[in-house]
Amino acid sequence: MNAVPRLTFLKVTLCLAVFRDFPWRKVPVFIMAQIVGAWIGAMLVYANYFHAINIAEGGHGARTVSGTAGLFSTYALEYMPAANSFFDEFVGTMTLILVVFAVTDQRNGPPPAGMVPLVIFILILGIGAAFGMQTGYAINPARDLGPRIMTAMMGYGKAGASCFMFRNAFRADRLVMCEVFNFRNQYWLWCPILGSVCGGLVGAFIYDALIFTGNESILNRP
């Protein structure tokens, strides 16, 4: 399996551990690295656009979920019911994993050397165009959770919270009570995390059941 998707996508790491003998002892390290990387990226974007965010929110220190939180993590549109939101992420991630497994399968006519990252880029662009409008297409738990933690630390959705109170940023009550985690009955858990993980595992299962012939897969072992 090409290193690019393995290192970048949390659900790819899980799928490789389940279907490709990727060592389970490495899974927590990879997942933590992906979440921390996403958090750092979100912090850099936040710092760069700090003043623009103040203007967009209508004042210094104002940070709202309905305002600019969607720049960093995903939130479903108001008309989206819970089941539809889950299904949206499920199908998008299932499609992603199916194609990632296909283009990295050396027995199935993979793209030329060096082309896999470009193919995956075009794939993600297509998934975004097809599925991005309604839920923001997380299709990767780490890409949503890392920035969501950052917005909680910066006071998004917490009444009266300063936009940057670093001395309080790691307080548990500041994170747990923040609206970014309470939004629509813990949307962050059942849609961008569970929806993506379940979709990824189903996509990997479908590919291995119908196409993959290698004995690395648990479906092809005697």
Automatic annotation (TrEMBL):
Membrane topology summary: Multi-pass membrane protein
Keywords linked to the UniProt accession: Membrane, Repeat, Transmembrane, Transmembrane helix, Transport
Record has Repeat as a keyword: yes
Compartment(s): Membrane
Chief place of localization: membrane
SUPFAM superfamilies, per the entry: Aquaporin-like
A GO CC term assigned to this protein in UniProt: plasma membrane
One of the record's GO molecular function terms: glycerol channel activity
Residue intervals passing through the bilayer: 29-49, 86-104, 116-139, 145-166, 187-207
Superkingdom per UniProt: Eukaryota
Catalytic activity reported: H2O(in) = H2O(out)
InterPro entries in the cross-refs: Aquaporin-like, MIP, MIP/Aquaporin
Family in the record: Belongs to the MIP/aquaporin (TC 1.A.8) family.
Family matches, as PANTHER family: AQUAPORIN OR AQUAGLYCEROPORIN RELATED, AQUAPORIN-9
Protein's name according to its UniProt entry: Aquaporin
Protein species of origin: Hericium alpestre
